[in-house]
Amino acid sequence: MSDAATLRDRYWETVPLSKMTRAEWEALCDGCGKCCLNKLEDEDTGQVALTRVACKLLDDESCRCSSYHNRHQFVPECIVLDAQTIDKHMYWLPQTCAYRLLHEGRPLYDWHPLISGRAQSVHDAGVSVQGLTVSEANTPDDDWEDHIIEEPL
User: Fold this and answer.
1) N or C: which end of the chain has fewer CB within 10 A?
2) What is the pLDDT of residues 35-94, one digit of tens each?
3) For the purposes of burial, counting CB atoms within 10 Å of the CB of 87, is it exposed (0-12), middle (13-18) or buried (19 or more)?
4) What residue ranges do the domains of the chain occupy?
5) Cβ density class 53-84: b for 16+ within 10 Å, e for less
6) In the beta sheet, which residues pair with residue 56?
7) Can you tell me the distance from the alpha carbon of 119 to that of 67, in angstroms, rounded to the nearest whole number?
8) Phi, psi (5° rounding) for residue 53?
9) Residues contacting 55, CB < 8 A, separation 6+
């Protein structure tokens, strides 16, 4: 989470996504790690299935990217989510994702670190992928279907 001193009080309730500062935008991430899980998209229906196969950069303990600022050097296809691209990427965002919730006009959950004041609250609530993932580096693509999970966790 970003330095709280740079964040306006309860900004997520009044500031549109497109008007948030970079620090405010980044602080919306609850640290669940679900966006770093590989997804499978059905070519016929377009439905997206979430797997527990994690990006090689996901730290399973913290549920954060181990190289967030340099991730494109290692994972060029990693998506940059911002207010201009959220509509394009909405279909794969987790149901509990703060970016999705606010984009849809819904409130954050009580366990969100911005509300609880604790980064650990997302893990305590059981909505993170902490301890659930397998690495894409050790899981052949053909086996990903064996790791499909339901969301929200």
Assistant:
1) N
2) 999 999 998 998 888 999 999 999 999 999 999 999 999 999 999 999 999 999 888 898
3) exposed
4) 29-149
5) bbbebbebeebbbeeeeebeeebeebeebeee
6) none
7) 19
8) -80, 110
9) 36, 37, 38, 65, 75, 78, 136
